[in-house]
Specification:
The complex is a heterodimer of chains A (272) and B (273). Chain A contains eleven helices and no strands. Chain A is globular. Chain A has helices at 16-46, 48-57, 59-92, 98-110, 113-124, 139-163, 166-174, 179-208, 214-217, 227-236, 240-271. Chain B folds into two domains: 8-38; 52-272, MetI-like (MetI-like fold), CATH 1.10.3720.10. The longest helix of chain B has 34 residues, at 53-86. Classes of the chains: A mainly alpha (272), B mainly alpha (273).
């Protein structure tokens, strides 16, 4: 390994062995992930801009994309509020059975998406013991997004909240700041990067969600059909170019989220 | 947590009630319903699942794909984590960011992407591969690829922070005493990251067992051949056999929830030491 140090190029510390290792892993990553995802973008652009535009402005497709974006935005906004509140309860409150609450938060993340779908059908489907019937409505999409994205904001905010110094809050309170002022001026600013990261993850997950909503939503065009369902029906109708056009939009959004997360994470690290 | 706040503020109570009600309605109640639906007639639903040869082969396929994908992702994940933490090379930041991509891409897009490259009819590489006797899409290799794709970052996410934390002093000490790269890895690095690898493996297995969307696109859903357990849940539900759908869902869900619980317990224990 010592040979690496004498290399003239200072930007790399790869030894011959680790260079081969890097080559193999990057090759596998390319074959599995990068080349297939590039194929989506290339197939989407192969018919030219006009074809791409015609595909995504098709009335049914445009409606599906619109529903997905609106629902993902709405549940992200909801998660910012509920996720922060739940994280606060977990970190600051003490009551009997709190550990059960902690377990419940991870369940949506752990469950297979199709199981999540069946879970939601059993309480909000046609045989709902609550009398709430969301099957085959656009509300089912919101519900499924809300279920699968539950852990993101909570799990991002929770560790930051645990690290927060209580002294500063007590100082603010002793100087006469109300609870709300303390929260807004002291707690919230430190939580913002974590909330933003959780929001980005929620939005990305919502945009691409499929498994948890198929059973409850019924996939009705112009009502409860989302972007990923639209892609799937294009694939099944042997229209890979059409599928790739919608997929390219989802992929670009996923890439933007990755970039946003990278920026946020660097900010969180530099703040210490 | 100081024990100063003896009186509980109304805001605290309100937030507590909200958190409990929200999680009860969104998670606890519906999950409990799936469990009670599964055991409505005792164990007959579960017995039905194991008695049905098609469902047995679906479970076997799911298990095979999950195990193979987990082995691949563990080897890949540990190698790339070592490279990311212990070496410098151009494009490292980009590679690091791209490795998280599988977690934010729609599973349907994942399936489509694989079909576009490995599809037997019109894929970039698919026809050539089929000429050489390897069918990927609509066959087990495609299911394994899709499963490996969606669970790819999980081992890396566990191992990288631990590698950063343990530093390189011990590794350097071993090397100065004459250990070669392999010996350093087996005797020093691997024992130090052992638990991170275990967590990563368990989480990868759980994610792999439950993959649905990506597998649906690449599998072709051929009964007894390329139908995985999650696909069977959908099919049973749509074909008015909810009992089987609930039982199979219960099985898959238990595996995933148990995995999460095991990791949480192990983590809590290691945090105490």
């Amino acid at each position: 390994m010592s040979r690496g140090a004498s290399r003239p190029d200072l930007s790399t510390t790869l030894t011959p062995t680790s260079a081969v290792g890097l080559g193999i892993t990057v090759l596998w990553f390319s074959l599995l992930v990068l080349i297939p995802l590039a194929a989506v973008l290339i197939t989407a652009s192969s018919g030219g801009w006009s074809n791409f535009w015609r595909t995504i402005t098709n009335e049914q497709t445009a409606h599906a994309i619109q529903l997905t974006v609106v629902a993902a935005l709405v549940i992200t906004a909801l998660n910012v509020v509920t996720g922060t509140a739940i994280a606060w309860v977990i970190v600051r409150d003490r009551f009997f059975g709190k550990s059960v609450l902690e377990l419940l938060i991870d369940i949506p993340f752990a469950l297979p998406t199709i199981t999540a779908g069946l879970v939601l059908v059993s309480l909000y489907g046609n045989e709902s013991p609550l009398g709430i019937h969301l099957a085959n409505t656009s509300w089912s999409v919101y519900l499924a997004f809300l279920f699968v994205t539950l852990p993101f904001v909570v799990r991002m905010v929770q560790p930051v909240l645990e690290e927060l110094d209580l002294d500063v809050e007590e100082a603010a309170a002793s100087l006469g700041a109300s609870r709300f002022t303390t929260f807004r001026r002291i707690i919230l600013p430190s939580l913002l990067p974590a909330i933003a990261a959780g929001a980005a993850l929620s939005f990305a997950r919502g945009m691409g969600e499929y498994g948890s909503l198929v059973l409850l939503s019924g996939n009705l065009p112009f009502e409860s059909e989302v972007a990923s369902v639209r892609i799937l029906s294009s694939i099944e109708n042997d229209n890979p170019a059409g599928a790739a056009s919608v997929a390219a939009i989802l992929l670009v959004i996923a890439l933007l989220v990755i970039v946003a997360l990278d920026v946020i994470q660097r900010k969180m690290v530099s703040r210490g | 947590m100081t024990r100063k706040s003896v009186t509980v503020a109304p805001v605290t109570i309100a937030l507590r009630v909200f958190a409990i009600a929200y999680l009860f309605l969104l998670v606890a109640w519906p999950v409990a319903l799936v469990v009670s639906n599964t055991f409505e007639n005792g164990l007959t639903a579960l017995e039905g699942v194991f008695g049905d040869p098609d469902l047995r082969s679906a479970l076997r396929l799911t298990l095979t794909a999950a195990v193979v994908a987990t082995v691949i992702n563990t080897l890949f994940g540990v190698s790339i984590s070592l490279l990311l933490v212990r070496t410098e090379f151009r494009g490292k930041r980009l590679l690091n960011a791209l490795l998280d991509l599988p977690l934010s891409v729609s599973p349907i897009v994942v399936g489509l992407a694989l079909v576009l490259v490995y599809g037997g009819r019109n894929g970039w590489a698919g026809p050539w591969l089929e000429d050489h006797g390897l069918q990927v899409i609509f066959a087990t290799p495609g299911i394994i690829l899709a499963t490996a794709f969606v669970s790819l970052p999980l081992v890396i996410r566990e191992v990288v922070p631990v590698l950063r934390e343990i530093g390189i002093e011990q590794e350097q000490a071993a090397q100065s005493l004459g250990a070669n790269g392999w010996q350093t890895f087996w005797l020093i690095t691997l024992p130090a990251i052992k638990w991170a690898v275990v967590y990563g493996v368990v989480l990868t297995l759980a994610r792999s067992v439950g993959e649905f969307g990506a597998v649906k696109v690449v599998s072709g859903n051929i009964l007894g051949e390329t139908r995985t357990a999650t696909l069977a849940v959908e099919e049973k539900y749509l074909n008015f056999d909810p009992e089987a759908a609930y039982a199979l869902s219960f099985l898959l869900g238990s595996v995933s929830v148990l995995s999460i619980v095991i990791v949480a317990v192990l983590r809590a224990r290691s945090a105490r030491h």
